[in-house]
């Protein structure tokens, strides 16, 4: 072995000794601690802190008036409810129909009974006085009531009832007799 080979062998041996010397258990512990500290620091300094999605309001049986039903129109991340003959349906799964910009958004957060019965999107179909009496639908004919019944059946199959609609001032708990009353 000439001189150069000897030096290379010496160097390789030195590198090997020093690298194996680095991998001691103590160094492993120190390295883990350093990595953890760096990770914790980066997480804290992250420009995108972890935020949880805004919680949806819980779905509970409750009593609505035309006014308290109004915010449930799918805007501001709210669920979409509509009322048919005193029952409030959670139509959020049909957000494409009733949500903002949807073809039936006029019914969102409203008593949709008359509009559905008369197949009309007219503003006149919706309760104007939110603090007044509910629409009794007493002037509707059998054909319109039949149409409405059809919609109700569809909604019963498809959506959950989350409450009932009463006129303002009639929200007393003891009035609640259950679904369909
Ligand atoms: C030109 C007339 C109309 C056409 C072409 C039409 C078309 C449609 C279509 C294709 C759907 C989706 C059905 C599905 O995938 O389940 C739908 C749903 C619906 N339509 Fe119409 N529609 C019309 C008129 C009306 C009118 C006049 C009303 C009531 C005022 C109405 C109320 C609804 C409602 C409430 C839904 C959603 C039902 C659900 O939540 O599943 N539509 N319509």
UniProtKB/TrEMBL annotation:
<dbReference type="GO" id="GO:0020037">
    <property type="term" value="F:heme binding"/>
</dbReference>
<dbReference type="GO" id="GO:0005783">
    <property type="term" value="C:endoplasmic reticulum"/>
</dbReference>
<protein>
    <submittedName>
        <fullName>Cytochrome b5</fullName>
    </submittedName>
</protein>
<keyword id="KW-0472">Membrane</keyword>
<keyword id="KW-0256">Endoplasmic reticulum</keyword>
<comment type="similarity">
    <text>Belongs to the cytochrome b5 family. MAPR subfamily.</text>
</comment>
<dbReference type="GO" id="GO:0016020">
    <property type="term" value="C:membrane"/>
</dbReference>
<keyword id="KW-0479">Metal-binding</keyword>
<feature type="transmembrane region" description="Helical">
    <location>
        <begin position="20"/>
        <end position="42"/>
    </location>
</feature>
<keyword id="KW-0408">Iron</keyword>
<dbReference type="InterPro" id="IPR036400">
    <property type="entry name" value="Cyt_B5-like_heme/steroid_sf"/>
</dbReference>
<feature type="domain" description="Cytochrome b5 heme-binding">
    <location>
        <begin position="64"/>
        <end position="166"/>
    </location>
</feature>
<keyword id="KW-0349">Heme</keyword>
<dbReference type="Pfam" id="PF00173">
    <property type="entry name" value="Cyt-b5"/>
</dbReference>
<dbReference type="InterPro" id="IPR050577">
    <property type="entry name" value="MAPR/NEUFC/NENF-like"/>
</dbReference>
<dbReference type="GO" id="GO:0046872">
    <property type="term" value="F:metal ion binding"/>
</dbReference>
<keyword id="KW-0812">Transmembrane</keyword>
<dbReference type="InterPro" id="IPR001199">
    <property type="entry name" value="Cyt_B5-like_heme/steroid-bd"/>
</dbReference>
<keyword id="KW-1133">Transmembrane helix</keyword>
